Amino acid sequence: MASSSSLRMLSSNLKKVHTLVSRSRFATRSVHKRRALLYPVEDGVGHFLPPEALKTAVEWQEGLLERLNEEVKGTENQNKSVTQTVINTATARERTLAFNYASLALNNSFFLDNIKPPPVTADNHEDQISNDLLAAITTQHGSLRQLKSSFSAAGLGMFTNGWVWFVSDSKGITGILPTFGPGTLLVQSRTYMGHEKGLHFGDIVPLGRSTQASPTPKTPLSGTFPSSPASGVSSPTSPRLNDPNARLIHSSALAQREILTQPASLYGATATGQGLGTLSSIMNVGETIFPLFCVPVYEHSWMSAGYGVWGKENWLKEFWSVVDWKKASDAYFAAKRSSERLTDGAAR
Amino acid sequence: MSLPTLRPWLVAAKASSSSSRTASTRLACAARHQSTSASTARLESQADWEEFRAQKSRVRTLIDTFSEYGSTQTDESAFHLRDQLHKPARNATISALLAAGAHFGHASTRMNPNFMPYAYGTRAGITVIDLDSTLPLLRRAANVTRAVARAGGQILFIGTRPDLKHVVQKAAERLGPQGYYVGDRWLPGTLTNKREFFRGQNIEKVKVNPDLAIILNPTNNVNAIREFALENVPTIAIIDSNVDPRLVMYPVPANDENPRAAELIAGVLSIAGREGVALGQTDKIQQAVREERKSRQRLSWRSS
């Protein structure tokens, strides 16, 4: 009988008509939900994100995911993870809203999972920095203190909302990278990174030409950084002029000229092969950049923390007490090993 | 990940024409045209290939780094239609059987009287199968499969329709060396005429009879079922309402026409079989450990 055979085959054809059938309670698709934090929400995260501020961050995350769910409902991205959504929607102009929400949700999730409430015994987690990472920071930025001051400078220099990242590339060169708005490190044409003037990168190998040294702050920032036993430096050393080991790559005429003469290559590796640790190897957007930790530069973050609308500077100082250096060290280790992961010829 | 080149003919024309441009304008031009000359270069040497692999590896690491964050929806938690075949559920539920349409029987006029205990009623001229009896019978069949696999038995899956071929193939693969399948026609006489079929081999040494047979479309394979009965092989089959359940030892009353129901049932049985295989291996290991201990004890008694 036609009706009985059609009934028997009905369920296998059901997928073709599911859009017409109203959704039942137990047939809903999985949606984006906020990941649980690695620490209790009620206690906040030290002085950096007191309970009110953490609640605001969590509320923002939930709102972003809710709006992302609305945006991707019924599209091909509705069952994909946030990372995959960012990659898929990056090139589509008409899906910019989904990209923006997904990128901000990803960045915020990364931020919240790479901080930890400060331990009871100490002020911060700096005893967990691996030797590798500490050596890299010392070589490339001078000391942990100088890194902190550069990082704060990058954050203070941003006059729109965005994120400041501490990044590494696959060769182990670290740097500070500000990104604006919904910029993401996953898709290089959509990173919206701060351009030369706000960019501070380390330079391991002096190239034998004089890069003009920019002045680092001669006086330490008003005694707020706790002296970490690892750094052993009480005050930043003032660099000499024409110091080949300059920590801050400033917008000197030489650097600018160098940037402009690089061959335009959005996705290819540098062709000049200048060796490790050159400005061009980082600035050339072909290089893969791995995040170690980040901080949001949004007014709602420090206002909800009680620092007031102009409290960015003090709030960024508090950030160092909650950075999870163990995770940053592990991420740095993974970044350095990243080029070797597919040597067995496995198809991925 | 590279963007498609916009207006490639223009890029080529510009590249070939000679023009006196400064470095900065050349840079700006290339950025506008999204020309990626470095990435479209062909791989020529081993070093190129290795650099390509290294770059792929780096990008993969970056994506994996970010994949841990975002939301609770990951690839594992998301619904995929392909999972019905490739990642079936371990346990069947009434709602899953209902969704798969396993409760639709054949026309009521064709209902076999011996099927009455498993029928729920009639609707739209077809027999509705009682899933409250199907589920425990399916669990019993799963227990049998697990026990046979644990004892080292060889299990044969038969599904001789085009839509069932991949189901039985996947099911047999889950059991490793103990799983076998017949996706095309069952050759009559495979068991009853084995001397003819396996002529080149020493029939006393070769094991032809399976230890358990699971048939997904028994109405098309009555020859096979008859041979199993003659050779005393236990059988499990999906029994529809027009079939006598006494045909096989462990009937599973369900819809035999629907591939989704077959995927569900074969999935449950093959996962039970896979568990049985794993349990059998741990049993062997424990047995070996016990034997070793006993022999050491015997040696120590003898020496003392």
TrEMBL record, chain A:
- Composition bias (Low complexity) maps to 226-239
Query: What are the protein's GO molecular function terms?
Result: metal ion binding; superoxide dismutase activity
Q: Region Disordered: what ranges?
A: 206-242
Q: Which Gene3D superfamilies match?
A: Iron/manganese superoxide dismutase, C-terminal domain
Tell me if Coiled coil is a UniProt keyword of this record. Answer: yes
**Compositionally biased, Polar residues: which spans?**
209-225
GO CC terms in record: cytoplasm
Which Pfam families has this protein been placed in? Sod_Fe_C (PF02777)
- Where does the Manganese/iron superoxide dismutase C-terminal domain lie? 131-174, 288-329
List the coiled-coil residues: 58-85
UniProt keyword annotations, A-Z: Coiled coil
PANTHER family from the entry? 37S RIBOSOMAL PROTEIN S26, MITOCHONDRIAL (PTHR43595), SMALL RIBOSOMAL SUBUNIT PROTEIN MS42 (PTHR43595:SF2)
Q: What does this protein do?
A: Component of the mitochondrial ribosome (mitoribosome), a dedicated translation machinery responsible for the synthesis of mitochondrial genome-encoded proteins, including at least some of the essential transmembrane subunits of the mitochondrial respiratory chain. The mitoribosomes are attached to the mitochondrial inner membrane and translation products are cotranslationally integrated into the membrane.
Name under which the protein is recorded = Manganese/iron superoxide dismutase C-terminal domain-containing protein
Source organism (scientific name): Coprinellus micaceus (Glistening ink-cap mushroom)
From TrEMBL, chain B:
- A GO MF term: structural constituent of ribosome
Q: Which Gene3D superfamilies match?
A: Glucose-6-phosphate isomerase like protein, domain 1
Q: Name one GO cellular component term.
A: mitochondrial small ribosomal subunit
Which CDD domains did the record assign? RPS2
Question: Is the Ribosomal protein keyword given for this protein?
Answer: yes
Q: Which UniProt key words apply to this protein?
A: Ribonucleoprotein, Ribosomal protein
Q: Which domain of life is it from?
A: Eukaryota
| InterPro entries given in the database record | Ribosomal_uS2 (IPR001865), Ribosomal_uS2_bac/mit/plastid (IPR005706), Ribosomal_uS2_CS (IPR018130), Ribosomal_uS2_flav_dom_sf (IPR023591)
Pfam families cross-referenced by the UniProt entry: Ribosomal_S2
Q: For this chain's UniProt record, which GO biological process terms are given?
A: translation
HAMAP family, per this entry?
Ribosomal_uS2_B
The protein's matches in NCBIfam families, at most eight in alphabetical order, are given as: rpsB_bact
Give the UniProt family note.
Belongs to the universal ribosomal protein uS2 family.
In Swiss-Prot or TrEMBL terms, this protein is called Mitochondrial ribosomal protein subunit S2
Q: What is the lineage of its organism?
A: Eukaryota, Fungi, Dikarya, Basidiomycota, Agaricomycotina
